[in-house]
Amino acid sequence: xxxxxxxxxxxxxxxxxxxxxxxxxxxxxxxxxxxxxxxxxxxxxxxxxxxxxxxxxxxxxxxxxxxxxxxxxxxxxxxxxxxxxxxxxxxxxxxxxxxxxxxxxxxxxxxxxxxxxxxxxxxxxxxxxxxxxxxxxxxxxxxxxxxxxxxxxxxxxxxxxxxxxxxxxxxxxxxxxxxxxxxxxxxxxxxxxxxxxxxxxxxxxxxxxxxxxxxxxxxxxxxxxxxxxxxxxxxxxxxxxxxxxxxxxxxxxxxxxxxxxxxxxxxxxxxxxxxxxxxxxxxxxxxxxx
Length: 290
What we know:
10 strands, about 290 residues, 13 helices, elongated, alpha+beta, 2 domains
């Protein structure tokens, strides 16, 4: 019963990514207002508020707004964000019975005698859902710094030494090393793509990316990270990324596979890249999701 309830409360990362894919403009707006939250939670909050016809504005818990001299308007419903929750570990007998069907996914982490799962919790209200004392809020868009991001993530950028002009960039994930073609059409998008390879595919020895990407799940993952980063920072290249990703996710079978195995990892990698290049990362801000 508990396991069934846990699954029903878990975020649908695949759906969230498809939603983000269909409204790229909302990602940048969400990051501007909710940049102190993880990328996944920022998009999640923005989509929920937009669906209710509410303005994107700062969010806080019921009690936090009360501390700030504001109260939640009557009839307003809380929005849900992804939060870590530690639950009691199964007994040894239960573990043995379930060993054959055990599944380790991106939403579950082992932790001591318990385990930490990520679930949706309805606990936040937007400023536009409250009333009371004046609340001054200044929207500050964090600047992303490439050198800082590479340093924080311990990724090295080297000299591009391939003679194939069609190769936009390449990564050596097992060494956390990358190189971008000086003549790359969109070097920023290629950079995010190669950084994603370094974070997500650490067992690979080399991955080179040209103008036409191979139809491989690892490439779809890296390009999805590039899409989220470009959309968040308001950079060009979204049409090219979206075209490839939508082509790869064309069949229901592939879309389901991506949703189950890759979507959460994609949000995690994009979030790490964005946070690593901002002042928030320098201050050691803790993300709200994996």
